[in-house]
UniProtKB/TrEMBL annotation, chain A:
This is ABC transporter ATP-binding protein. Residues 5-240 form the ABC transporter domain. SUPFAM superfamilies: P-loop containing nucleoside triphosphate hydrolases (SSF52540). One of its GO terms (molecular function) is ATP binding. It holds the Pfam family ABC_tran. It comes from Mumia xiangluensis. The keyword Transport applies. PROSITE patterns: ABC_TRANSPORTER_1, ABC_TRANSPORTER_2. Gene3D superfamilies: P-loop containing nucleotide triphosphate hydrolases.
Automatic annotation (TrEMBL), chain B:
The keyword Signal does not apply. This is Transport permease protein. The chain crosses the membrane at residues 44-66, 78-101, 130-149, 155-179, 186-207, 244-263. Keywords: Antibiotic resistance, Cell membrane, Membrane, Transmembrane, Transmembrane helix, Transport. One of its GO terms (biological process) is response to antibiotic.
């Protein structure tokens, strides 16, 4: 497949006073045409900095990147023409009317006024914004504004779309809607999509490939399924009526599945193992033969949070305790 | 969020539009029209911008008449050109606040990712300042005429051209200030207000600078606004003299400096 994004040793440092913080460190990333990739990581991991470099908003300190075949430093306008971008803020100015911003945006990509109008009307229709077309952006609801952002990003039907934390601030209903739009864009246009998120379910639902970023580095890069299988198997949680049963059950599980991580605390046994759902039946049969009967059995699929925890030793949900890169970025930029 | 948004979820099929290269002129015109649109649709800001200068005209002219002993018509002949420059100064120097708001909400960032050239983003915005300034100036002239103000028509036209050139430069500087202080509103207004009043007072808009202490006169000589005000007075009087030329030069220099600084700030913006 053709290369859409290629970075070599991409690095970005921010300086605040005498302190240098490396937001992105030696990033080598290859994204092929048509891929749907999520950059996943906690706040301050370097996701947005990476996206800002790829969209020409920020110059790399060292290293290089080509996007849609164009260098992000020496050929910025060609990159800009080739991409669509949905940032964290609102794309349309609040003092403007929704339709005007869409049409002007289309014209800025070289569409004729007529083309831009037609395209804007189609997008507003499909995003359920037709009635709001002539409204000022500031009078739209949060969900409507976010849908307008999507329309702005799609006005020129870009072959490559970047989304920076697309669903931040959206209620669950609108978040689901947004995900449908992204998937739809993908299926209809075969567009390449790169998004950043710290929502696990979002990365899981959308991306075929997840690049886990932490402290400016890529710590894992694979499909959601492979990441989970490799880094955080299924979890089988059992409870027993007596501590004796529990410890015997734990021993038998370890013996039968040497690869499994077995932990046991008084009456509970936790078994973490790849393909765990497939071994439950055999395990219970073994317990029945040994005369042990669990009181409860629960099988949980791993989440990307488990993956992140296993990769970094920290949970994605925990706030970072060290200085956030985002804050430094604001000071330094 | 109030109501749950329900809508069909289908993006249109058409991958047809492919982005094409555009000329700097196309880009600048696009930015200019975009900037102008809210002003035209909602002319409240233009009307609001006239109120303060109207107060000066209505409440300050009688004081000038009383203290100078000249006729109202003669006083207006001297004062109206200054009021026109004042309204341009007030309106244009605050325009960066609009950009600052767009920086906060995110739309500025979106324009930076678009293929619009950085200089067209600055020049298009700055050129828009001309329109409200001219409309407001003509209203002031229209209000003053019944009280005896008699501008030389050709001079007025050229005077407005000079003022427009000055406004483009000042507008660009205001945008550059917004880009420099980023989202810090306090810093924007602090700098704007701190510079606005000395510039205005030292340009001799409200009172003539004749007889001012030497140091004050020296300061007024390095204020480009002084030359613009003198040029407006000369042109509106119908005298095509050195003052007019000096003012046109000051306006042109302000314009070039403003656009260069502004375009540079826009390029550094991220």
């Amino acid at each position: 497949m053709d290369t859409m994004i290629e970075t070599r040793g991409l690095t970005r440092e921010f300086h605040t006073g005498k302190k240098t913080v490396t937001a992105v460190k030696d990033l080598d990333l290859h994204i092929a045409q048509g891929e749907m990739v999520a950059l996943l990581g906690p706040n301050g991991a370097g996701k947005s900095t990476t996206l800002r470099m790829l969209t020409t908003l920020l110059a790399p300190t060292t290293g290089s990147a080509t996007v849609a075949g164009h260098d992000v430093v020496t050929d910025q306008r060609a990159v800009r023409r080739a991409i669509g971008y949905i940032g964290q803020g609102n794309s349309a100015a609040h003092a403007q009317r929704a339709i005007d911003e869409l049409v002007v945006s289309g014209q800025s990509y070289g569409l004729s006024r007529t083309q831009a109008r037609t395209r804007a009307a189609e997008l507003m229709e499909s995003l359920g914004l037709s009635e709001q077309a002539k409204q000022k952006v500031m009078t739209l609801s949060g969900g409507q504004r976010r849908r307008l952002d999507i329309a702005m990003g799609l006005i020129h039907a870009p072959g490559l779309l970047f989304l920076d934390e697309p669903s931040t601030g959206l209620d669950p209903q609108n978040r689901a809607n947004l995900q449908e739009h992204i998937l739809d864009l993908r299926h209809r246009h075969g567009a390449t999509v790169v998004l950043t998120t710290h929502y696990l379910d979002e990365a899981d639902a959308l991306a075929e490939r997840i690049v886990v970023v932490d402290n400016g580095r890529v710590v894992a890069d694979d499909t959601p399924a492979a990441l989970k299988a490799d880094h955080a198997g299924d979890r089988i949680a059992l409870t027993f009526s007596s501590p004796g049963d529990a410890s015997r059950a734990a021993e038998r599980a370890s013996a039968a599945h040497p690869a499994a991580q077995v932990t046991h605390t008084s009456r509970a046994v936790d078994i973490q193992v790849a393909g765990g759902s497939g071994i439950v039946a055999g395990l219970l049969g073994d317990y029945a033969q040994a005369g042990i009967t669990p009181s409860t059995v629960e099988v949980a699929r791993p989440t990307l949070d488990d993956v992140f925890l296993s990769l970094t030793g920290r949970s994605l949900r925990e706030g970072r305790t060290d200085t956030s890169i985002d804050t430094l970025e604001e000071v330094a930029a | 969020m109030s109501a749950v948004d329900t809508h069909p979820t289908r993006t249109p099929d058409a991958p047809a539009p492919v982005s094409r290269a555009t000329s700097p002129l196309h880009d600048t015109a696009l930015v200019f029209v975009r900037e102008l649109r809210p002003v035209v649709r909602d002319p409240f800001s233009v009307i609001f911008g006239i109120i303060q200068p109207l107060f000066f005209l209505g409440l300050f002219t009688p004081l000038l008449v009383a203290s100078s002993g000249q006729s109202t018509a003669d006083t207006l002949q001297w004062f109206v050109p200054g009021v026109i420059v004042m309204l341009a100064l007030f309106g244009t120097s605050t325009t960066g606040a609009n950009l600052q708001f767009e920086m906060q909400t995110g739309s500025h960032e979106r324009t930076l990712v678009s293929p619009l050239s950085r200089s067209s983003l600055m020049i298009g915005r700055a050129l828009k300042e001309i329109v409200p300034t001219i409309v407001q100036a003509l209203v002031i002239v229209g209000v003053a005429v019944p009280f005896g103000f008699r501008p030389d028509l050709a001079g007025l036209v050229v005077g407005l051209v000079v003022l427009s050139v000055f406004c483009v430069g000042l507008g660009a500087l205001s945008y550059a200030l917004a880009l420099a202080v980023k989202e810090n509103q306090w810093a924007f207004w602090g700098v704007q207000q701190t510079l606005l009043f000395p510039l205005m007072l030292l340009a001799g808009i409200l009172l003539p600078l004749q007889g001012a202490p030497g140091w004050l006169e020296a300061l007024s000589k390095v204020n480009p606004l002084t030359y613009v005000v003198d040029a407006e007075r000369a042109l509106i009087e119908g005298s095509w003299n050195g003052d007019a030329v000096a003012g046109a030069a000051a306006a042109a220099i302000t314009c070039v400096v403003g656009l260069v600084v502004g375009a540079r700030a826009m390029r550094a913006s991220s």
